[in-house]
Design brief:
This is GTPase Der. The protein has 467 residues and is of the alpha/beta class. It contains 14 helices and 17 strands.
């Protein structure tokens, strides 16, 4: 059993730096610009033999209207209500500010226990701020430096009273293993077993800014889990949410919008896009969300090609379908653009939804599970070799300088994505056009739609043949 620790404080006091320190990896974006974090995100934390769930939140602002800052504050308050203990973080070098005093007065009335943390306490410049923090009425401050890892022993000692008493060594070890798996990671290269089925499907929700990615995640989980609004580019950090639908577990990851590289000039946006690319590389299924009013424009297709090149499975999600008038024409445009840009990977599933109204979300998830199943598929070697014999009889490779390239054997060497090794006497001379023909024939023969297939040409004798 674990407990939950939430990090709160005004902007730019080092909450995300401490979050990364406690999580043991750089999961949250960190920059000197105030307000980089906008949504709250959680991860398994592990420090000094103590295991817990750590939650990073947006900087607290003294606003209560409908602005983005006010919506960020409501997200932080939601995370605070769910926590077992809160760490109220101040900047010891800057001293206690009026905003610190304001929120300290609010936190003193909170039902959630609060510990005061004086961050950036390295060096003499922090001493005056450390002494000032006593006036906040939250008890003795815990001096530490999240950036340098100083003072973590004092933090562990302060958190110990909130740890469950039955948190024995076996459970700590289990959480430590879970912590190492935080974030979207590949599940492996074996056929899906019951044990694999119990593992979450890692889903990355990607697309251009303001196409409804965060709204889709909120609609799926049934709550305002991430910040949404009319402003483009609201999401910066990749926010991971564990969720279950029917008998399957999912890890949904909302990502920052990806504009064309030429338009990305701010440092924070560059960091956010780099984080999105990391999420794509580690996902099982990528939902590419596109706007129904601008379906599959150039940037959408660039993202789709990148997903395929990374070997991830792809589902295209056409959002805001409820506002489309000529739906038949829109679907024909989607088919034409897919054929022109991604004709080499036939069968990519396209699902039309309304994330705001929650329309056809079950259909979307069915498509995700089906695509994931194909991405994991393994084909027996005996079937593959019967298939290649038929292919060679019907359409053998072309002659190269009067001699024919011989394909002796084929086997699947991995899944996720399905990858096949062809043992060829002259692998460098097998034309790319014939390799594309084999890939297409393989896709049709074994029902492998919508996922990338890879052929690896190998030279040598059949490794499975008798000596």
């Amino acid at each position: 059993m674990s407990f939950t620790v939430v990090l709160v404080g005004r902007p730019n006091v080092g909450k995300s730096t401490l979050f990364n320190r406690l999580a043991g990896k750089k999961l949250a974006l960190v920059d000197d610009t105030p307000g980089v974090t906008r949504d709250w995100r959680s991860a398994p934390g592990w420090v000094g033999g103590l295991s817990f769930t750590v939650v990073d939140t947006a900087g607290l602002e003294d606003v209560t209207d409908d602005s983005m800052e006010a919506r960020m504050r409501r997200q932080t308050e939601m995370a605070l209500e769910r926590a077992d203990v809160a760490l109220f973080i101040i900047d010891a070098r800057a001293g206690v500010t009026p905003l610190d005093r304001h929120f300290a007065s609010i936190l003193r009335k909170s039902k959630t226990p609060v510990l005061l943390v004086a961050n950036k306490s390295e060096g003499k410049a922090s001493k005056s701020g450390l002494y000032e923090s006593y006036e906040l009425g939250l008890g003795d401050p815990i001096p530490l430096s999240a950036e340098h890892g100083e003072g973590m022993a004092d933090l562990v000692e302060a958190l110990l009273p909130y740890a469950p008493k039955e948190d024995d060594e076996a459970e700590v070890d289990a959480v430590a293993v879970e912590a190492s798996d935080e974030g979207p990671v590949p599940i492996g290269d074996q056929p899906e077993t019951e044990a694999d089925r119990s593992k979450p499907i890692q889903i990355a929700i990607v697309g251009r800014p303001n196409v409804g990615k965060s709204t889709l995640l909120n609609s799926l989980v049934g709550e305002e889990r991430v910040l949404t609004g009319p402003e483009a580019g609201m999401t910066r950090d990749a926010i991971s949410v564990d969720w279950q639908w029917r008998d399957r577990r999912f890890k949904l990851v909302d990502t920052a919008g990806m504009r064309r590289r030429a338009r990305v000039d701010e440092k924070v946006e560059k960091l956010a896009v780099a984080d999105t690319l990391r999420v794509i590389r580690m996902a099982n299924v990528v939902m590419l969300v596109v706007d129904a009013e601008a379906i599959l424009d150039k940037q959408d297709l660039n993202i789709a090609r990148m997903v395929i090149s990374e070997g991830r499975s792809l589902v295209i999600v056409v959002n805001k379908w409820d506002i489309v008038e000529d739906r038949a024409m829109a679907l024909r445009q989607v088919e034409d653009k897919l054929e022109a840009a991604l004709g080499y990977i036939k069968g990519v599933k396209v699902v039309t939804i309304s994330a705001l109204k929650g329309h056809k979300l079950d259909t979307l998830l069915d498509a995700v599970v089906d695509t994931y199943t194909v991405w994991n598929r393994r084909i027996p070697t005996s079937q593959l070799n019967r298939w290649i014999e038929g292919v060679l009889d019907h359409h053998p490779p072309p002659l190269i300088e009067g001699r024919r390239v011989k394909i002796r054997y084929v086997t699947q060497v991995k899944s996720r994505p399905p990858t096949f090794a062809l043992f060829v006497n002259k692998p460098l001379e097998l034309p790319e056009s014939y390799q594309r023909y084999l890939t297409g024939h393989l896709r049709d023969s074994f029902d492998l739609p919508g996922v990338p297939l890879r052929l690896l040409l190998r030279k040598g004798k059949n490794p499975f043949a008798d000596e």
